[in-house]
């Protein structure tokens, strides 16, 4: 794929990259690569460029993401007798695992340590008080430009991990960031798509090239709390600890949509009407039927502010297929109402912000060859 502008949104660019890698058989297991950091043919060869970087040679502690295409990068860190840090899956049990191979480990053992199973078997957790200093960061990407602009798979974990390292004092503005991708993933990315929380990269390693981007765009200066939802706070304990620290330090730690829940003294708070939410006294017939479908009598639990609609389910799809996809994307609902014969399902989330976040995350989701239709439940009813 020649470097060029490939879309008008980040999701457009992701979809084109994923589609191209699948259609050209450039992808390796696991497949399909959609909604993943793609594992590509030649990933091991691309990673062989890493030890040749001066930034690698001088680094003592290196953080590498846990995705499949960076497996060889993790091996090279261990083989070079450097400290390897790998983020915990979805940050649910902490921030980092430090990989500790057994004494006298052979290359074969080190290669096992570099796998996802090895990370589980040969690691110890690193807490917020560890005072770790990271000298080099290796991240995965779906797309990256020669200017250093980066697009991930859309969940924001790499950006969040970097922001958390900034808050911990683990990285500085001088810490280099490397990504390892297939040549087809190097494309033009419009700068206007970048947001303040997006990390950029200094080096791009492909099977055929080493690209020094010379990127001068500042990296995120820490966690943008206004981008963090309450649902994310509940899922990531280390995020709650960091927020408490920054609140103590006098920083603004207002969460996404949090200001909507702060009533003025002496005034009754108005309930904001958002997509998927009805006034309590006008639930409508659809709300009653959905309440019944979700196991609640009509009129109870209103307003239904947190339901997402999933349509165009394959005729042979099972509820387990959808549940597995939701787990992989980190969008597990409180309740799933399956209506297989009607090729649809409804997902209930804690609040409207969580439902909207899930809808955004699930855009473009496929089961088999079918792309699902995802929307807030009320938006779907309005259609």
From TrEMBL:
Q: Which residues form the RRM domain?
A: 306-379
Q: Which domain of life is it from?
A: Eukaryota
Stretches the record annotates as Disordered? 247-297
Keywords linked to the UniProt accession = RNA-binding
Q: Any signal peptide, and if so, which residues?
A: none
- Which GO terms of the cellular component aspect does the record hold? cytoplasm
> A Gene Ontology MF term for this entry?
RNA binding
Under Pfam families, the record lists:
5-FTHF_cyc-lig, RRM_1
Protein name stated in the entry: Methenyltetrahydrofolate synthase domain-containing protein
- Name the source organism: Cercocebus atys
Print the organism lineage: Eukaryota, Metazoa, Chordata, Craniata, Vertebrata
Instruction: Tell me what gene encodes this.
Output: MTHFSD
């Amino acid at each position: 794929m020649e470097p060029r502008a490939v879309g008008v949104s980040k999701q457009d660019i992701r979809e084109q990259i994923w589609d191209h890698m699948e259609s050209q058989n450039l992808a390796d297991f696991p497949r399909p690569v959609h909604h993943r950091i793609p594992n590509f043919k030649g990933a091991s060869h691309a990673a062989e460029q890493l030890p040749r970087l001066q930034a690698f040679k001088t680094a003592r502690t290196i953080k590498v993401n846990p995705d499949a295409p960076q497996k060889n990068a993790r091996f090279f860190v261990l083989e070079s007798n450097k400290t390897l840090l790998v983020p915990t899956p979805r940050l649910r049990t902490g921030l980092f695992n430090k990989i500790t191979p057994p004494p006298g480990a052979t290359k074969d053992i080190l290669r096992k340590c570099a796998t996802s199973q090895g990370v589980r078997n040969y690691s110890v957790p690193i807490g917020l008080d560890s005072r770790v200093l990271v000298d080099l960061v290796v991240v995965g990407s779906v797309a990256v430009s020669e200017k250093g602009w980066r697009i991930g798979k859309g969940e924001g974990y790499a950006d969040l991990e970097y922001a958390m390292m900034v808050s911990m004092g683990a990285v500085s503005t001088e810490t280099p960031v490397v990504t390892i991708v297939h040549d087809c993933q190097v494309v033009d990315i419009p700068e206007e798509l970048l947001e303040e929380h997006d990390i950029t990269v200094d080096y791009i390693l492909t099977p055929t090239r080493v690209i020094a981007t010379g990127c001068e765009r500042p990296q995120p200066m820490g966690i943008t709390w206004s981008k963090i939802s309450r649902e994310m706070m509940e899922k990531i304990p280390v995020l709650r600890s960091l927020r408490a620290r920054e609140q103590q330090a006098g920083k603004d730690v207002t969460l996404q949509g949090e200001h909507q829940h702060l009533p003025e003294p002496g005034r009754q708070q108005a309930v904001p009407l958002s997509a998927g939410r009805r006034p309590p006294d006008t639930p409508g017939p659809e709300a009653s039927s959905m309440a019944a479908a979700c196991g609640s009598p009509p009129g109870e639990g209103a307003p239904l502010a947190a339901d997402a609609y999933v349509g165009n389910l394959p005729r042979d799809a099972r509820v387990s297929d959808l549940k597995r996809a939701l787990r992989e994307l980190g969008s597990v609902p409180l309740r799933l109402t399956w209506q297989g014969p009607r090729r649809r399902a409804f997902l209930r989330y804690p609040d409207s912000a969580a439902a909207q976040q899930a809808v955004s995350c699930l855009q473009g989701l496929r089961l088999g060859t079918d792309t699902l239709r995802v929307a807030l439940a009320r938006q779907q009813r309005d259609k």
